[in-house]
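ok, trying the design again with the full structure, not the truncated one.
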């Protein structure tokens, strides 16, 4: 168990050396391989990490060097992070689904001499960019499959490098320890590159102090202990994984579990039964979509039970989660639902043991948020960003609200500027943007206040409400507010809708691009005898347009009751002929919409939505999975959606 003596540790390697004194045999990580869970004790994880550090040192890795890491969540890759930090170096995780050109930018900008790559796919990307990144000396791989005939002068097996490190430690046992001793809290612990929503990604420099103090504060805030179980399945390049899996895990001492692959996450989640869970809204949206699809395929009795008890949950579940008074009969009715529906559903999803769950990254739709809380899952929103080491506000138990993101956690201050922008400061505030002093000065003041770029306000309860990105919040021609992300999240509650982009700033009305969810709509098509051969054909089907129109009109009815947003009802829409894709630059790697790219690429479609056209031809360049480029062409239909009377104005 972690104890108070660890508060003296100033870096992660120092923390690990202290924990080894009493936690050596405690499970630190698990990985599922070939269907079997394999466990690394803390002693095994540290032995491998320090052996790798010695091997890297023998290759010439020195203090302040950067080590780019590419791959899925794997114990050896987390060990590589520890190894770099042990030598005073800096790990730089890259998104594993990035194309070679995106990897090239990170490797070149971070001035990396060494790359750790999970497998042949990632090694091939690293080799492809070597000519453009001449600093790269060695590429270290974890999985040897397919790499037998690669140049051993450039590509080296991590097991071989660890063995080399162990030999170094036999003759120089203090090689790594002496470097660990030199570590200071202000040393850079990691560089994480932003998603690049508005331009080139920026390297956010976080210190050991940023991560350690934040982890200790948050663990205390939500009583996170060494007994938690966590599934690490989100990209290592994202600040969420580095805080929740790496920092909080090493500080609290809980076991971090790595899934076998992206395709087995759902099964692995059920097997692990995490007690502490984190996911961005898109994951919760995807899970809800799969639940609704299964229920539509279920028998009549099962479907009736689900619909009946979900209505009970909507009425009673959130109040029970918040500790509010609930009538005896309603409590009994909900208990029956737990036995027949909620419990089995949570077990199927792997959420049976979840004690606390977080969502962040983007706003989550209120309906989606309340769906999970109504099941008895303690889902809470937090508001944060990479530059804050995640946490700006959090929701304390008992005062969780779907429309707000809570209050500042210990040590964090938040205020609202005169223009409505949220600014903050606290122990997690980043050091700088790597090699970008101009951007640092624009974002962070001399006294450590950070500009978020988000518009928000504190409500009557003192909870922060985020409206949207400040630059994205606009005004319509009637001077009413236009908040695109709010509208988009309401539409994404429907399982048939995967992605939405809305338009309305300085316009007379609001319009939308829609991406359908192929799984959900494909399932619907099968049940309704709608034949199709491709995403494009299904998206263009008249019955699919009618299905999406019904969803939009339900949202319009809801918006009509909001005096601030009643003018934002969606009047026209089209269904895109292709899914918005990170490989095409339309989404970031964390699946945030790049609005500037959308406006540039689909300008004619946007004009058609507003000028009354009923059809518009589009030809779009796309990148296929094998790296080839091509074009997709379509004549897209543009439809009108009915708007509802604005109740507040009518009453006036």
């Amino acid at each position: 168990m972690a104890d108070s003596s660890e508060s003296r540790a100033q870096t992660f390697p120092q923390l690990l050396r202290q924990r080894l004194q009493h936690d050596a045999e405690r499970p630190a990580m698990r990985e599922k391989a070939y269907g079997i869970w394999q466990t690394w004790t803390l002693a095994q994880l540290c032995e491998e990490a320090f052996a790798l550090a010695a091997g890297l040192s023998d290759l010439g890795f020195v203090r302040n060097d950067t080590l780019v890491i590419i791959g899925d969540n794997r114990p050896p890759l987390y060990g590589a992070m520890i190894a770099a930090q042990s030598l005073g170096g800096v790990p730089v995780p890259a998104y594993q689904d990035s194309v070679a050109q995106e990897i090239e930018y990170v490797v070149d900008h971070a001035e990396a001499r060494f790359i750790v790559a999970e497998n042949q796919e990632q090694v091939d990307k690293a080799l492809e960019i070597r000519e453009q990144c001449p600093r790269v000396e060695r590429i270290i791989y974890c999985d040897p499959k397919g790499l037998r005939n690669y140049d051993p002068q450039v590509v080296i097996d991590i097991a071989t490098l660890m063995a080399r490190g162990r030999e170094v430690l036999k003759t120089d046992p203090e090689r790594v320890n002496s470097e660990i001793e030199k570590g200071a809290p202000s040393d850079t612990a990691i560089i994480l590159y932003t998603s690049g929503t508005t331009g080139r990604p920026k390297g956010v420099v976080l210190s050991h102090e940023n991560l350690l103090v934040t982890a200790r504060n948050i663990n205390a805030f939500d009583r996170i202990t060494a007994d938690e179980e966590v599934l690490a399945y989100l990209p290592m390049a994202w600040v969420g994984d580095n805080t929740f899996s790496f920092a909080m895990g090493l500080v609290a001492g809980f076991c971090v579990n790595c899934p076998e692959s992206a395709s087995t996450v759902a099964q692995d989640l059920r097997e692990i039964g995490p007690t502490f869970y984190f996911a961005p809204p898109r994951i919760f949206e995807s899970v809800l979509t799969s639940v609704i699809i299964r229920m539509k395929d279920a028998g009549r009795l099962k479907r009736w039970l689900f619909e009946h008890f979900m209505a009970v949950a909507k009425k009673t579940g959130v109040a029970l989660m918040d500790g509010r008074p609930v009538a005896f009969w309603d409590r009994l009715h909900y208990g029956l639902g737990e036995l027949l529906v909620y419990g089995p559903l949570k077990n199927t999803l792997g959420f049976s043991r979840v004690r606390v769950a977080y969502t962040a990254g983007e706003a989550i739709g209120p309906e989606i948020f309340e769906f999970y809380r109504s099941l008895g899952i303690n889902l809470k929103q937090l508001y944060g960003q990479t530059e804050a080491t995640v946490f700006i506000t959090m929701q304390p138990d008992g005062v969780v609200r779907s429309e707000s993101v809570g209050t500042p956690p210990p040590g964090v201050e938040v205020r609202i500027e005169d223009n409505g922008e949220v600014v903050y400061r606290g122990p997690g505030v980043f050091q700088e943007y790597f090699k970008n002093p101009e951007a640092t000065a624009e974002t962070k003041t001399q006294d450590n206040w950070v500009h978020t770029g988000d518009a928000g306000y504190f409500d009557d309860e003192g909870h922060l409400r985020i409206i949207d990105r400040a630059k994205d919040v606009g005004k319509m021609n009637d001077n009413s507010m236009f908040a695109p992300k709010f509208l988009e999240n309401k539409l994404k509650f429907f399982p048939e809708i995967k992605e939405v982009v809305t338009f309305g700033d300085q316009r007379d009305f609001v319009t939308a691009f829609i991406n359908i969810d192929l799984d959900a709509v494909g399932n619907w098509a099968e049940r309704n005898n709608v034949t199709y051969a491709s995403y494009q054909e299904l998206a263009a089907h008249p019955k699919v347009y009618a299905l999406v129109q019904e969803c939009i009109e339900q949202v319009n009815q809801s918006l009509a009751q909001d005096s601030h947003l009643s003018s934002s009802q969606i009047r026209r829409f089209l269904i895109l002929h292709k899914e918005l894709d990170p490989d095409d630059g339309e989404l970031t790697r964390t699946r945030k919409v790049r609005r500037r790219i959308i406006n540039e690429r689909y300008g004619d479609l946007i004009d058609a939505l507003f000028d009354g056209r009923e059809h518009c031809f589009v030809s779009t360049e796309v990148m296929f999975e094998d790296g080839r480029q091509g074009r997709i062409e379509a004549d897209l239909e543009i439809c009108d959606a009915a708007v509802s009377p604005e109740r507040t104005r009518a009453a006036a």
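Keeping the full-length input from now on. The first strand starts at residue 27 and ends at 33.
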